[in-house]
Each structure stands twice: as structure tokens, then as C-alpha cells.
Write a structure and sequence with these properties.
Layout (H helix, E strand, L loop, with lengths): L3 E5 L2 E21 L2 E15 L7 E7 L5 H8 L7 E6 L3 E2 L6 E3 L11 H9 L9 H11 L15 H14 L4 E5 L7 H15 L6 E5 L3 H7 L2 E8 L2 E9 L15 H13 L1
Parallel strand pairs: 4-9, 4-10, 7-8, 8-9
Antiparallel strand pairs: 1-2, 2-3, 2-5, 5-6, 10-11
Helix pairs in contact: 2-3, 2-4, 6-7
The site of adenosine-5'-triphosphate has 10 residues, from helix 1.
């Protein structure tokens, strides 16, 4: 069923939301009886656009200390909720390794060249069997790090390390990619490149699902289709608001920041933090 039609720049954009890719159900987390997260419920669905390989981009926003990192860790399978569940692809409880996780301090093996690290990543992906080298070279060209492949991480800039780190997760074959503060500490030009790169990754496969935890509200909203706002309540933090940016015709437009509705949405988000 087609949910909605949008008219932008004379182009009609039809889309449907189909299978649930990730489901959080009644998730609670406490430490020594102190509630941190409470009653977290949301589902991420596969967005399907005719003729476009459209992945999903979700941002998780909230004030400092609200519990974003804790929810990130639960989604990454690095920690179990005290109660409730997070499942992917039907009914599979998420476990460490199911998701590609790109930490803020890009984790690469310091004693291996970038190529060696990436080669290790490809060995975990049966779909690349026999084409590992080609896959590495293709993504390296896309991410503009071909010249870095035979260097060690300490010989790379922060931006190059970040791109290598994202490639590492992509080559493992993870459809879910979790990003912890991907925009922090980047200069404006590099930030634009990272945004472009994330959009390319999201559109590389219809099932690619990027989940971004960030303090940079404007950049996050500009590239997302959905925003979740985590807010504090008596019994722990919970999702206080979900904003469907596709419904608002604010997703998938390069110049969205010039749109008045975009500015209004930023104001709305800031007011609800
Ligand atoms: N191991 C732990 N034991 C007890 N409390 C913890 C533990 N880890 C985190 N917390 C608490 O959980 C709450 C949420 O922390 P979290 O790091 O998820 O916040 P955040 O939203 O990511 O903050 P920031 O934006 O500042 O990184 C905080 O009150 C923190 O003190």
C-alpha cells in the first residue's frame, strides 16, 4: 500500500513502509535499581521507493545524560536490557556482531594496514567470497581512501580513519550501521563529505539502515528520514517524540536546510529536548 505522495521540485516521490527491520519492545534498563531507560518502544521499517535503492536513516537525539549511549549499546547488542527486547529481521534478539558499530573513536587495528583490516572484514562476509579485493577497491574509491589502503591507521587523518572504519563495517556485510557521534569534531568541508558518504551508504542497499546518535541536531535531521527524541521522565528516559521526516517532505532533499519547514522542525526538536 502506498502511504503517501509528495510533490517536490515537480517530482512525485511515492514510498511505502514495509517489513519491520528493527523492533524495540518495552525496553527498560536500570543499574542497581536506578532506572535509566523505561518503556522504549519503536519500530524501524523498510522504506521502499519505486526505482530508488532507498535505505533508512534514523537519528536518536536527546540531552546530555538522557541515555542515548545506553540505548545505542542495547541496539548494538553490547548490553542486554533489564527487561523488554530488541529484535531484528523478524524475531532475532539482537546480539553483539549483528550490527556494524562505528564508534566515535574509530576502532582500527593499529598494527595492520588499512587493507589488511578491510580484508579481515571481508572474510566475515560470505557474499563477497572471491571478490574481496574488488569490493575493497570499489569502496575505497567511493570513499576516496585508495591512497591510504597500504598505510597504518596512525598515518591517516581523522576523516580518513572514519571512512576506513565505516568501510570496515560495510564490508562485513552489516545492513545495520550504528554511528556514535559521526559529526563531532569535523570541519565544515569534511562534515559535508561525511554527510554525502552516509547518504551514499544508505542508498547502496535498500536494507541498509543507519542509526545515528548525535548532538548535532541540524546535520542529523538533514540526512534522516526519522528522528527519535529521548527525554527524561520520572521512571527513566523514554522516546518522547517520533518525527517522520518523510511525511513532512523533509527527507531525501539535498537542499532541505533552505526549507522553512526544516527550520520549524529544528525549533520543534529543540523545544522538546
Ligand atoms: N555503568 C553505569 N552504571 C550506572 N549508571 C550508568 C552507567 N552508565 C551510564 N549510567 C548513567 O546512565 C545515564 C545515561 O547515560 P548515557 O551515557 O547513556 O547518556 P547520553 O545521553 O549518551 O549522554 P551524553 O550525550 O552526555 O553522551 C547517566 O545518568 C549515566 O550516569
Amino acid at each position: 500500500m502506498v502511504i503517501s505522495l509528495h510533490n517536490f521540485s515537480n517530482k512525485m516521490t511515492a514510498y511505502t513502509k514495509q517489513d519491520v527491520l528493527l523492533q524495540a519492545t518495552d525496553v527498560c534498563l536500570s543499574y542497581d535499581g536506578t532506572p535509566i531507560l523505561h518503556d522504549i518502544n519503536f519500530s524501524i521499517r523498510n522504506i521502499v521507493r519505486p526505482g530508488v535503492s532507498q535505505g533508512q536513516v534514523i537519528s536518536l537525539l536527546g540531552r546530555s545524560g538522557v541515555g542515548k549511549t545506553q540505548l545505542f549499546r542495547l541496539m548494538a547488542g553490547l548490553q542486554k536490557p533489564t527487561s523488554g527486547s530488541i529484535t531484528i529481521n523478524g524475531n532475532k534478539q539482537v546480539e553483539a556482531g549483528d550490527m556494524g558499530v562505528v564508534f566515535q573513536h574509530y576502532y582500527l587495528f593499529e598494527w595492520k594496514t588499512i587493507y589488511q583490516s578491510l580484508r579481515m572484514a571481508t572474510s566475515q562476509n560470505p557474499l563477497l567470497k572471491g571478490n574481496e579485493k574488488e569490493a575493497i577497491e570499489k569502496w575505497a574509491a567511493t570513499f576516496d581512501i585508495t591512497a591510504c589502503l597500504h598505510k597504518y591507521p596512525q598515518q591517516l587523518s581523522g576523516g580518513q580513519r572514519q571512512r576506513a572504519s565505516i568501510m570496515q563495517q560495510l564490508l562485513k556485510g552489516s545492513k545495520f550501521l550504528l554511528f556514535d557521534e559521526p559529526f563531532s569534531g569535523l570541519d565544515v568541508c569534511v562534515l559535508d563529505k561525511v554527510v554525502d558518504m552516509l547518504l551514499q551508504v544508505s542508498m547502496a542497499d535498500e536494507l541498509n539502515t543507519l542509526i545515528i546518535v548525535s548532538h548535532d541536531i541540524e546535520t542529523s535531521v538533514a540526512i534522516s528520514d526519522t528522528v527519535y527524541i529521548l527525554g527524561k521522565e520520572e521512571g527513566g528516559s523514554t522516546i518522547k517524540k517520533e518525527i517522520d521526516l518523510v511525511e513532512r517532505d523533509l527527507a531525501w532533499h539535498k537542499d532541505v536546510r533552505r526549507n522553512k519547514a526544516f527550520a520549524d522542525t529544528l525549533d520543534e526538536i529543540k523545544a522538546s529536548l
